[in-house]
Amino acid sequence: MKEFFNTYFNIKNMMDEKRKYRQQMARVKALPNDYQYVFKKIQEHMWSNVTGSGYDMMELQYGLLDLFEESVANGKPVLEVTGEDVAGFVDELLKNTKTYENKWKDKMNKDIHRKIGR
Length: 118
Prior knowledge:
118 residues, mainly alpha, flat
């Protein structure tokens, strides 16, 4: 129970994360418009699928921002970085992250196995 409160109600941690998020968004605003647009669309999708505290999603977004900044510095167009299938790119990013979709799939499988007895 202590871990739950430290994860979800740790005021210092929440303030630190909020500060880091503001810094991240300032970095996003410094990107070219096409990169900003793609980042924000990916971010929207990520936040609609987050489960738990969302801290793992934040780390994923920091990594994405690093990738985008490096790609801008190398003169790459954003779709060269993500590929034409941006949704597929996001699926790969989320592959090892806890999402509601994963939670729903796990619950469905558990319910079926519990009912069928396997």
